[in-house]
Amino acid sequence: MLDLASSFMASAARDPRAIGLVDGDRRLTYRQWYDKISALVASFGRLDLKPGDHVVTLLQNRWEAATLHWACQFAGLVVTPINWRAKADELDFCIENAEGRAVFYQDVSAEAVQGSALAGRLLRVSVDPGTGEAVGFADLIRGSAPDAEPCVGSDAWSIMLYTSGTTSRPKGVPRRHRAERAAAIAHVAQNLYGRGERTLGVMPLYHTMGVRSLLAMSLIGGSFICLPRYDSRQALELIQREGITNLYLVPTLYHDLVHHDAFDRTDVSSVRKLGFAGASMTDGLLKKLDEAFRPELFVNHYGSSEIYTFTIDQNATAKPGSAGKAGLNQHVKVVRIGARSVAELAAVGEEGEIIATLAGDEAFEGYWRRPEADAKSLREGWYFTGDTGFVDPDGDLFVTGRVDDMIITGGENVSPVEIESCLSLHPGVDEVAVVGVADEKWGKVVAAFVKRNRNVSESELEQFCRTSGLANFKRPRRYVFVDAIPKSPVGKLLRRLLVAGEYETERRPPSDAA
């Protein structure tokens, strides 16, 4: 297996004049991009950064971040990206945990770097001027340098992503060059990408989806069109101006895109392939996207930072809710909830915990210095995902939520995803999230938090659930109307905030005339 640097060199030789990177008015061919990468690699040597060193980054999806990612692959540095919104204490945790040697940041993350207790001891590089005492990124890429050569092989560490850490300290997920490249190849194959594709580079480069888009485009001479921070209007402008051919987003961003008032005025005909991951997509949004884009391919990708692909469904609208079958490099099973062995398989149609083999080419090998996390999740050569789901008679996997999100009400197990998909089909529901809230009699009752687009009532929603065929014990017993559903920076639903009461109820009911 090629290391990533050798892979990029081959791409630059194959398609030297193809546009590889776009950021605003800056457009770099693969040859020009390779020159910038080479200059940066040469600067790493002068700064005494050595193979195996961790480089912590707090950057939006700018051309500098994409260039830094590739330069680290050549230099053998372990790029360790974290959310550019991170606070000083969160940055300190990652610096200490990864034993970071350098931190790259920008204007929006400068406050965290300046407030960090540990960043001052490291090499600091800023891509924006006036952000404190730091080396300027522009100085590191000024001038020319010989073409960079790979410093490490395919078994070297490439990247360390951090899990979201919504319930505890984030866990480092170190991944090798060969696993990263295998995941990128599978991404190309499973999304049927062709030569010269153009993707919207908006999923952050501290997230597995963003990294996969960046690497996948390099394999096919494609273009990574940077959008530093998600904005629906800017995304639509880029789709039209740059002729974006594929989108790979979380459902939340798709929702915001097709519901933006500029969508109907935008030419999105260049987009022929849609892919989503990161969360389940409701039946209502699937239908809306299919009607809006009429894509040639609509892929539901189910995976994680640890093992990029679990399953793939290349026709997401044909069987709404299905995550499909195992990906090219994967084998998945569903075991009973609480299973102590991979042999305790759930029956067809029985909800259980989803597990994935660690023998696949895309898999990680364990968390960074977290033996207790390894003991919980890695067993008998399989990764216990913590996700719940079931396999139908056709062998297709349905993901129903998280083990920790399962609602046990009156002794019955209820999946919030099924209820959300049902309510999402009501025309008055814009977004919905379902959780279990404490109840003296039932233990927990099903509560639906609804962002509505017209003045739909609780009784109307209750009747809709009844006529939809949703079982009585699954129907919400409480409805709460809210102005916004809490989500993580990459669009993942944060049910724990709803359970904890950390939300604001709707300030004013919407007008039916709106």
From TrEMBL:
All residue ranges annotated as the AMP-binding enzyme C-terminal domain in the record: 418-492
Enzyme superclass (EC): ligase
Lineage top rank: taxon: Bacteria
Domain AMP-dependent synthetase/ligase intervals: 10-368
Enzyme Commission number(s) from the entry: 6.2.1.31
A GO molecular function held by the record: 2-furoate-CoA ligase activity
InterPro entries: AMP-bd_C (IPR025110), AMP-bd_C_sf (IPR045851), AMP-binding_CS (IPR020845), AMP-dep_synth/lig_dom (IPR000873), ANL_N_sf (IPR042099)
Entry keywords, A to Z: Ligase
Coiled-coil ranges from the UniProt annotation: none
Pfam families xref list: AMP-binding (PF00501), AMP-binding_C (PF13193)
Keyword Ligase belongs to the record: yes
Gene Ontology biological process terms from the UniProt entry: fatty acid metabolic process
Transmembrane portions of the chain: none
PANTHER family in the cross-refs: ACYL-COA SYNTHETASE, MEDIUM-CHAIN ACYL-COA LIGASE ACSF2, MITOCHONDRIAL
Family: Belongs to the ATP-dependent AMP-binding enzyme family.
Protein name: 2-furoate---CoA ligase
Lineage: Bacteria, Pseudomonadati, Pseudomonadota, Alphaproteobacteria, Hyphomicrobiales
